[in-house]
Amino acid sequence: MVRKGRRTFFTSERIGLFIALAILSAVPLFIKKRAIVELIILANIYAVYVASWDILCGYTGQVSFGHALFVGGGAYTAALLNFYFKVPPLLTILIGGGVAALLGLIIGMPCLRLRGPYFALATFAAAGLPHGLTDVYWEITGGLDGLYGISPVWPTLNGKYYFSLLLTALCCGLIYVGGRSSRGLILKSIREDEIGAMASGINTTRYKLITFVISGFLAGVAGAFYSHNQLHVGPETLSINLSVLVIIMSVVGGIGTITGPISGAYLLTIFNEMLREWEEVRLLTYTAVVVLILLFVPKGVLPTLTDGIKQLIKRKGG
Amino acid sequence: MNIFLEILVYGAVQSAVYALLAMGFCLIFGVANVVNLAHTALYMIGAYLIYTFFTLLKFNLAMSILLSTVSVGILAMGLYRFCIRPVIFSEWSVLMVTIALALFFQQLMIFFYGPPDRNVQGFIEEKFSLFGRVDIDAQRLLTLGISAVLLILLWLFIYRTRMGKAILAVAQDREAALFMGINCERVYLTVIAISAILAAIGGAFIAPTIGARPEMWAPALGRIFAVVVLGGMRSLEGTILAALLIGYTEVVISFAISSYFGEIVAVIIILLMLTFRPSGLLGKRVEV
Amino acid sequence: MGAILEVQELTKYFGGLGAVRHVSFTLNEGEMLGIIGPNGAGKTTLFNLLTGFLKPSRGRISFKGESIVGLKPYDIVNRGIARTFQIVRPFHQLTALENVAISCLSKRAIGKAIGDQDVEEKAAALLESVGLSGKEGIFAKDLPHGDLKRLELARALAIEPELLLLDEPFAGLGLMETSSLSPLIQKLSQEGHSIIIIEHKLRELMKLVKRVITLHFGEKIADGTPDELSRNEKVIQAYLGKGGMTLATG
Fold first, then answer.
1. Read out DSSP for C172-207?
2. Out of C91, C92, C116, whose CB is closest to A182?
3. A201 and C CB contact within 8 Å
4. What is the ipTM of this complex?
């Protein structure tokens, strides 16, 4: 946002985003295989998961291991409303987001004064709670199996796809714009030095809380959509595995940049699918690759790539 | 009366294992400032190794324990050298790499042993009668015994040997220790090895009781977080006290209400402590 | 010209240690006050109390007639008190312009700006006013120490404060840098800002201020003109020890 020099609407970053959006819009037109379209839908949903995580954690510097709470909160709210009360999908998605936003507020408040590893620990601990709750109240939630028979958000595959793309474009777009705005700058300053930010007159508490709520809302919306996409809701949406996956995607993609985590989401979702050929070693390879990336590409795939390209351009030009 | 005796013993065993794990975790954090999320994965590998050597390959008990422990120790040192040290400057990277490693090890266990639980036969197949009223299986008592011995040995090591003093020095002030000529790298490796051994033995001895599962590292991690937060990340005495508290509370609640609530006790404790007293029961006041 | 800041019996204990004890003074509008004292005398603690980073154990602080005890630091800033830090703390991964922009985005400053464009212009103007024009795009971690001190000042000024608290503005600066920063502070005072300066560089400080408070072990032991202070027994003893009187006068 605040940069010296002329500001153009079409920065290279934005051009890249438009191209990506264009490619994604064209997917159902060129790809007829159902499984692949479903895969991209999943990636679209994950993109919102990670983007909403990044604006909260990558930007403020506090790593939350509990993002699944928001996702699962939205997913279960939508599913329960739809399953028991026949509430239509669009409405359930909004309400699911609202419930997750509320969760964001509830979790955000005590977490405010925790720093670094303590914050991570607290969210890790909090993330373990709801998983068991679905077990205890299994009559309502369907326990380990979850609930089946959730209404679809759209009857056709392509319709479903474009709906997911719309969702992703809206949510991620909102997060992207927010992140690059002065609000995003303030969040970054909080990450750098919260006391310094306070000394600059910034109400850091309010900013962190609002970010929790927004992050929760969007993650909840995506989770709710997920329920309607899978026609099923299960405890995996609340699991710590999902939280960790979100973090891994974000870190691999490049934490704190919004675009990084989004690219991480697409990369890893597709990579995971590519490994399905070798089902036996799929997860083993996946986790091994993640460890390697974390060790050798610490800044994340996207920032390292863009830095590399910039270096190349400099060398060619100079 | 019987219930009380059972709770007494079960609680002690639970606390003992938690203490072993938490001590190792605290040592690494206190000395090297590393939050090693793969710590309980080592415990899991200890359990699987004892399964491999003792149950599958039918080595004798002493050999199996020795092999398991040494393997895990070497593995831990290797992990430190190749995975943690390169990123040790960034707390955040260490968190990420170690959790990714834990996940990797989980998949590795699934790859070699398959998803289902693996049962290990008890080291001593007997039940003792406590006060002639309650049957407690010997494995549990053995676990309790070995843990107590190890903790005492650890205490002696840290407070009575030169290396132990070096460890304390580095934990207090790394730069000062460097100036004193202490080889920090060797201290780190020693601490890593000790923690790994404690974890491996914990895993090996508890395996006959709870079996070996690829996911077992995760709930264990949650428990020792609770212990560490309750006891204060930098206080060894606090850790033991916390392990006792958490171990017993869990067992009591499991008996009294249900095992689910027993499990979430740890979580609730963490949340309460972090909200009201992040420095732990006995830990130094942390500036948050 | 009334009192802009009134401090009464301000006290702060850390456990058994009295870092600030029964300190009382008044600052008038537009006045520039110096605070001196040996290390550990409680000067920075005093600033932390005034800016809400610490809660007093006892005592009253009122700014423009209203008590500010118990307010959060950002609320105090938005009332018009800005401070710099003894050890500079810029946002290292942000550019100089962005550093100042953060302060321009505070509630107090934003009320007077219109949109992001205006914030950017304001920030650039502020950088220019402290002599950092041309360095807007440089990351704070790449700026030399002298520039960082000016950046601190620019950030404080961005809030359009009525009271400026400067904590050792000359610390770590060489002769040339010090003598170029000094007139800047002088100008701020002339423009009507009320200023309190903590400093160790006594000679430089005495050139700027007409009134100095001395703190020693948390207590105020003197309050007067630089001249009066140089003859004050307690002050000399505080700095030079018991035998100091002989050194100073003899």
1. T--HHHHHHHHHHHHHHHHTT-EEEEE-S-HHHHHH
2. C116
3. yes
4. 0.87
Distance from CA of A259 to the nearest CA of C (A): 18
Low-confidence ranges of chain B (pLDDT < 70): 1, 125-134, 233-234, 260, 277-288
What's the pLDDT score for residue A112? 76
Length of chain C: 250
The DSSP call for residue C169 is T
Query: How high is the pLDDT of residue A262?
Result: 94
Closest chain B C-alpha to A65 CA, distance in angstroms: 11
Please give the helix or strand (H or E) that residue B74 lies within, else none: helix B61-79
Would the CB atoms of A135 and B260 count as touching at under 8 Å?
yes
Give the one of A196, A198, A201 whose C-beta lies nearest to C91's C-beta.
A196
Mean pLDDT of all residues belonging to chain B = 84
Q: What are the DSSP E strand ranges found in C64-131?
A: 66-67, 81-83
Best CA proximity match to C95, nearest among B199, A5, A155? A5
CB contact under 8 A, A2 and C123: yes
Low-confidence ranges of chain C (pLDDT < 50): 249-250
Count of Cβ atoms closer than 10 Å to residue C128 Cβ: 13
Question: For residues A172-203, b (16+ Cβ closer than 10 Å) or e, as one string?
Answer: bebbbebbbebbbbbbbbbbbbbebbbbbbbb
Write the pLDDT tens digit of every residue in C30-70.
999 999 998 888 899 999 999 999 999 999 999 999 999 99
Q: Classify residue B93 as exposed, middle or buried by CB count within 10 Å of its CB (0-12, 13-18, 19+).
A: middle
Predicted local distance difference test score (pLDDT) of residue A2: 45
Q: Residues B6-49: pLDDT tens digits?
A: 888 888 888 999 999 999 998 888 888 888 999 999 999 999 99
Chain A residues with beta carbon closer than 8 angstroms to that of B40: none
CB contact A1 to C (< 8 Å): yes
Whether A177 has its CB under 8 Å from any CB of chain C: the answer is no
Q: Is the pTM of this model over 0.90?
A: no
Helices (H), chain A: 12-30, 34-53, 59-60, 67-85, 89-111, 116-136, 138-141, 157-180, 182-192, 194-199, 204-230, 240-253, 259-274, 279-296, 301-317
Which candidate from B35, B90, B222 shows the least CB-CB separation from A117?
Answer: B35
Interface of C with A (CB under 8 A): 51, 53, 72-75, 77-78, 83, 85, 89-95, 97-98, 101-103, 105-109, 116, 119-120, 123, 136-137, 155, 158-159
Torsion A221-A223-A229-A232 (CA) sign: negative
